[in-house]
Amino acid sequence: MDSSLSSQQSIPDDIAIKIASSLKVSDLCSLGSCSRFWRKLCGSDYIWECLCKKRWPALALEIESYNNQPHEEWRVFYIKKHNEMAGKAKGVIDFVNRCLAFESIEVGHYLKAVRDLDSILFTFEDVYTFFLKSKHSVLLNLIGLHYCLIWLGLPGECVMEILNKSNISQREVRVQWWKLGRWLFGFRLRDELITRTVSLEDLATGKEEEVLGVLHRGAVHEVIRVQISEAKPECTSWSFQNVQNAN
């Protein structure tokens, strides 16, 4: 008998399950391709049920209902739920892309996208899988980051680990907001335009709390408009100034 197979089969089941349960899905699938022993163990209902509960804790009632009825393998349930979340993520991404005007997005549309992630019960792993990736624009990265920090209440260091892993921590966005002009001697001064260029790391580590606060509150009180765009060295604010002058 192959010595490696023999050593695998000599591992107590509880230890083997603990090892497999600690892995990410991609690593679990890779481990399952190593031998018949690991293929059977990594495909067990127990492990995939745990993965479902760990990834989607807010779906506890749906998972419990599934558990109490005749059902397919938990691995099948996991794949279906993952594909369902992928479809919902695509809906949010398509909405954001439709709302882009001159490569920028108004804060009302931006906040709707963030709220949509909450309404479909996105978890941190969902956000990481579908939004915090280098293949997406920095605006989609920002929406995922905002949701993690504010709606999920995750600590910045936890999110930073994912930003670094995805090589997007140094990506920058430009946030511009207009504040109502102050009153002086009975006259209201011109509205004030504030522009900030910040990295995703700055927002995650709390270095730009004011900018994150403006993004989260949106156009309220003295802030009459907020616009977010990808920061590009060649970009200037002429288009925004023209809009302001036209108004």
Fold and architecture overview:
It comes from Solanum lycopersicum (Tomato). A hairpin with a 2-residue loop joins strand 3 and strand 4. The chain starts with a helix and ends with a helix. It has two domains: 3-78, Monooxygenase; 79-246, no CATH class. It is of the alpha+beta class. Helix 5 runs parallel beside helix 7 and helix 8 (107-119) packs across helix 10 (138-151). Strands 1-6-2-5 form a four-stranded antiparallel beta sheet. A two-stranded antiparallel sheet has the order 3-4. It contains 14 helices and six strands.
Concise description?
Helices cover 58% and strands 13% of the residues.
What gross morphology would you assign? Answer: elongated
Question: What pattern of helices and strands is seen along the backbone?
Answer: HHHHHHHEHHHHEEEEHHEH
Proportion of β residues? 5-15%
Rg over CA atoms, rounded to whole Å, is 24 Å
Please outline the major beta sheet.
4 strands, antiparallel
List low-pLDDT spans.
Answer: 1-7, 235-247
- Count every beta strand, where a strand is a DSSP E run of 2 or more residues: 6
* Helix content bin: 55-70%
Report how far apart the termini are: 81 Å
Structural class: alpha+beta
Chain oligomer state: single chain
Architecture blueprint of SSEs:
Elements: H1 3-9, H2 13-21, H3 25-32, H4 36-42, H5 45-55, H6 60-67, H7 74-99, E1 104-106, H8 107-119, H9 124-130, H10 138-151, H11 156-165, E2 172-179, E3 183-184, E4 187-188, E5 192-199, H12 200-204, H13 209-217, E6 223-230, H14 238-246
Antiparallel strand pairs: 1-6, 2-5, 2-6, 3-4
